[in-house]
């Protein structure tokens, strides 16, 4: 699996839909060929045999070549007749019996019928001493097959269907992309991130939960900063009193050490207060161009 597929939820879902759709198509095709082929074949053969019997009645018995030509031209069919004293075909290019492979018809002995690419709907029947090969309808195809235009239409339909599925899936999973952007902003320190959604499903609730989480983080950080600020203010007064009291004592190493500790503590408090002032709404630095020439 390529890295792009592993890192893209949209592509994974599309592949799942594609696999499911392909499986359905394969299953439907196999079922159609398995359950419907025999029924279609028998239906086509029955139609061909019934039509052939009608033609045989028109040809008469024994068959006459002039009558056969008349029937062939009138009905626009191909005819070949073999029998005692007769070996006739409606055209010189009309195939022989050996050149045409038709499946046997179980409903009539010594009869074959079906569809062939060259002759279309055809029948090969034996009536008394004569054998007839009849091309009843040209342009036929085997049962279950389809023409090129139908195949192209099916492919286009499947492509359009897959495109619609992809676009719909992308729209349904749009909150995932929004969440990804929001998490990236939060990770970079943009605590004021807030994502909008009108969805009420699971992904919509996930966006709402993320907004609540970001809001909670902001409030806790603000509470922490406020606590540090309050503590800093409260500590300054005792430190000042301690410093005044120390000024009234005699100089010693202990006094200097305590004064140094007080100064370090005051420096840290001043740094905290200055940081809070700079981060406040009206206390931040404002950058402006200045002409130094």
TrEMBL record:
EC nos: 2.7.13.3
The annotated topology with respect to the bilayer is: Multi-pass membrane protein
One GO molecular-function entry: ATP binding
The species is marine metagenome
In Swiss-Prot or TrEMBL terms, this protein is called histidine kinase
User: Which SUPFAM superfamilies does the annotation name?
Assistant: HAMP domain-like, Homodimeric domain of signal transducing histidine kinase
The record's listing under PANTHER family reads: SENSOR PROTEIN CREC (PTHR44936), SENSOR PROTEIN RSTB (PTHR44936:SF10)
Keywords on record: ATP-binding, Cell membrane, Kinase, Membrane, Nucleotide-binding, Transferase, Transmembrane, Transmembrane helix
Cellular component aspect of the GO annotation: membrane
Compartments where located? Cell membrane
Q: What reaction does this enzyme carry out catalytically?
A: ATP + protein L-histidine = ADP + protein N-phospho-L-histidine
Q: Where are the transmembrane segments?
A: 9-35
Which Pfam families does the record cross-reference, listed alphabetically? HAMP (PF00672), HisKA (PF00512)
- Give the HAMP domain ranges: 170-222
Is Transmembrane helix given among the entry's keywords? yes
């Amino acid at each position: 699996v390529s890295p792009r597929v592993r890192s893209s939820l949209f592509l994974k879902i599309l592949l799942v839909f594609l696999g499911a759709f392909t499986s359905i198509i394969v299953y439907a095709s196999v079922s159609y060929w398995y359950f419907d082929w025999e029924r279609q074949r028998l239906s086509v053969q029955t139609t061909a045999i019934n039509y052939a019997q009608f033609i045989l009645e028109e040809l008469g018995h024994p068959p006459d070549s002039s009558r056969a030509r008349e029937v062939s031209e009138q009905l626009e069919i191909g005819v070949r007749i073999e029998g005692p004293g007769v070996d006739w075909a409606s055209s010189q290019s009309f195939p022989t019996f050996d050149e045409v492979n038709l499946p046997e018809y179980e409903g009539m002995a010594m009869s074959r019928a079906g569809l062939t690419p060259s002759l279309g709907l055809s029948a090969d029947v034996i009536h008394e001493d004569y054998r007839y090969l009849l091309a009843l309808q040209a342009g036929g195809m085997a049962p279950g097959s389809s023409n090129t235009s139908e195949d192209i239409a099916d492919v286009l339909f499947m492509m359009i269907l897959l495109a619609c599925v992809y676009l719909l899936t992308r729209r349904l999973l749009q909150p995932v992309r929004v969440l990804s952007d929001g998490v990236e902003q939060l990770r970079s320190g943009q605590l004021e991130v807030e994502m909008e959604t009108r969805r009420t499903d699971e992904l919509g609730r996930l966006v709402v939960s993320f907004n609540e989480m970001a809001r909670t983080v902001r409030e806790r950080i603000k509470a922490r900063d406020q606590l540090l600020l309050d503590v800093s203010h409260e500590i300054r007064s005792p430190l000042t009193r301690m410093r005044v009291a120390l000024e009234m004592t005699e100089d010693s190493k202990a006094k200097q050490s305590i004064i140094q500790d007080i100064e370090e503590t005051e420096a840290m408090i001043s740094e905290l207060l200055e940081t809070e002032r700079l981060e406040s709404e009206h206390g931040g630095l404002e950058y402006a161009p200045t002409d130094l020439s």
